[in-house]
Amino acid sequence: MGTYIASVSPFEANLMSRIRNQEDGAFRELFHRFQDRIMRTAMKILKEEQAAQDALQETFLNIFRASHSFRGDSKIGTWINRITVNVCLEMIRKNKKHKQRTDEDISEHGALQDTKIADPFERTRQSEIRRRVYSALGRLGVKHRTVVGLHDLEGYTIREIAQQLEIAEGTVKSRLFYGREELKRQLQIRSN
Fold it and tell me: Which of 3, 42, 70, 150 could form a disulfide with 52 if both were Cys (CB 3.0 to 4.6 A apart)?
């Protein structure tokens, strides 16, 4: 994997400097800026709201502890997402109950929502599709689910995912391919 240096914006550099210097309000600003993103990522991996809340808290503790080590090699969002993914994977390793999720849990936190659809029939159809996709996604193994979620739902590039998970880009591509194939298989099984 080649070396990739992201340009950290002056705002991000200033914010991290303020956090390192423990300036009033700096960490709160970071929290408000990234809490929703962390929760979405944690929900996609852990599949349980309480576990995602725990991951949110643990992620911010880790950010606070590691703020002095942020070098600016990546954007703050990428660095924070890497911490979030690592926290979630560690939680899974420690407690295997986060591997499975019921269909009801999956559908109630669906991020795929098109609010422009006014027709109640179409909204119901879209809701059912969303439920089926998240249900099938929940049946994937954690490695495939994480990569598919980060790429297809969160919009991260192969390179960004490789950096966040600290794996080779080829590994990300492989997991994405096999994750999508398994997702298709799961959706076909459920539609037959």
Answer: 42
Pair (89, 108) in one structural domain:
no
* 8-state DSSP, 96: G
**Are 73 and 36 contacting, i.e. CB atoms less than 8 angstroms apart?**
no
Write down the pTM of the prediction.
0.55
| DSSP 3-state of 116 | coil
How confident is residue 36, by pLDDT bands cut at 50, 70 and 90?
very high
Q: Output the six-digit token pair for 120.
A: 């109640």
Range of the domain at 104: 100-192
Nearest to 174 by CA among 157, 188, 150, 158: 158
Secondary structure class of 138 (helix, strand, coil): helix
Q: Please classify residue 9 by burial: count the beta carbons closer than 10 Å to its beta carbon, then call 0-12 exposed, 13-18 middle and 19+ buried.
A: exposed
